[in-house]
Amino acid sequence: MRLHDLVRRLRQPNTTKIVMLVADGLGGLPLEPGGKTELEAAHTPQLDAAAREGVCGLSVPVLPGITPGSGPGHLGLFGYDPLEYQIGRGVLEALGINFPVGPQDVAIRGNFCTIDEEGLITDRRAGRPSTERCIDMCGLLRQIGIPNVELFVEPVREHRFVLVIRAADLGDHVNDTDPQGLGLAPLTARGADPASERTAEIVNQFVAEAARVLRKEAPTNMVTLRGFARYPNIATMEEIYGLRSVAIAVYPMYKGLARLVGMTIAECGSTLEEQIRTLEDLWEQYDFFFLHYKYTDSTGEDGNFMAKVQMIEKLDEVIPAIQRLGPDVFIVTGDHSTPSKMRSHSWHPVPTLLVAEMTRTDGVAGFSEAACLHGGLGHFEAKYLMLHALAHARRLGKYGA
Predict the structure, then answer these.
(1) Could you tell me if 355 and 50 are in contact, meaning their C-beta atoms sit under 8 angstroms apart?
(2) This prediction's pTM
């Protein structure tokens, strides 16, 4: 029996509420052997108290040793097996800005980047330009035309944009053009089958034209493309779990993930404080609250250890406001680890805590990678976290006689 079929069979109604606070890229590494991770270095009295009250563990986003993207990482947290539901980032970004992805579309995540005179990448994120500059650069890219193809270029945020290609007989099995490193040229797109090869040909024409129209626009003088995707067929969280769910997220990509699984997308401003006020305002309307915090990830990707420590400490300050609402289940975790030492996502398990009335406490005295290693949840695949949440929320019945 498939996991979702089992949940549909066992689920039972209740009025309990679940809050899942996802600190993106939460897990880290010490800069020196024997040192502290960012989470261990941070002063987190509120998270430490929650860890003592609840139960802790380490979640594995996909499989041991596998480094996840944000899409697979979040789908696992929502209870969707990331190996079964392989969804490209492009469609998530498009849904995040509420672009109507159609049946003939391939959606692609774009990054503005910086190249030197030899065409080699010197900054994969173009110095994180303002969203206003992103909008201006997308205006330039909209000048590009390809016969018998509709192209849609939409700004997302900072260096990110969405490219949607609309034409007949397109495929989405195309490699990323981002080489994931500096001093390298953007890669040529290639398709794995005839339909995807047609997509790749269109993409290569688009990139060549992008290089032309952006050539005098340094640091945003080139683009890379990744996450080629068509719209997937996926059941919603309400269909599977019977939960009325809402996403309180600032960044469009995470709104797209939430929209994909049927969550309502809340307008929540741009700060953590505004997100908490939105949570308070919507408390009576929903059963499941996905609260996303980005900056533990972006500081890790920037390689800024102390900035990530500060972002963790900022998150810690709002924990009492969440707990005052009285969630029946309160979860704090991440979609993956982003050690500032690596400046990238990593395969390391993610610290996770769960607080609920029926929690079996485990003696963990603080919230950190080292402490969670000894927690009662153990090492577990992230796709099972929703089972823990539903059970502690008294929303799962007994299996078998």
Answers:
(1) yes
(2) 0.84
